[in-house]
Design a protein that fits this description.
Low-confidence stretches: none
Order of helices and strands: HHHH
Oligomer: single chain
Number of strands: 0
Shape: elongated
Radius of gyration: 17 Å
Number of domains: 1
Structural class: mainly alpha
Length: 79
C-alpha cells in the first residue's frame, strides 16, 4: 500500500497496540502495513510511551495542509 496515508482508525489501533505492549511488527501485521510505517509513525509522534492517536492524526492533517498550500504569487511586478 505505498503512498496510502494512515487513517485515524489505524492510528487508534496503533495506540491500542502500544497500550498492550505489542511489538511494532505485530501492530503492523494487524494493520497489514510495513513495520517501518508503524515505527516511523510512533517515533515522529512522541515515541511508544507518549503516542496519542488523535494528536498524531491532527499533526498529519496539518502537515498535509502545509504541503498542499501553494505559495502566493508576488504582487510586485518585475521591473
Amino acid at each position: 500500500m505505498p503512498g496510502v496515508r494512515l487513517t485515524q482508525q489505524e492510528r487508534h489501533q496503533i495506540a491500542l497496540g502500544l497500550a498492550d505492549s505489542l511489538p511494532y511488527a505485530e501492530i503492523a501485521r494487524r494493520l497489514e502495513r510495513p513495520t517501518s510505517t508503524t515505527t516511523r509513525e510512533v517515533m515522529r509522534n512522541g515515541g511508544p510511551t507518549a503516542y496519542r492517536a488523535d494528536l498524531a492524526h491532527r499533526a498529519a492533517e496539518q502537515s498535509r495542509e502545509i504541503l498542499h498550500t501553494k505559495p502566493e504569487a508576488s504582487s510586485e511586478s518585475a521591473t
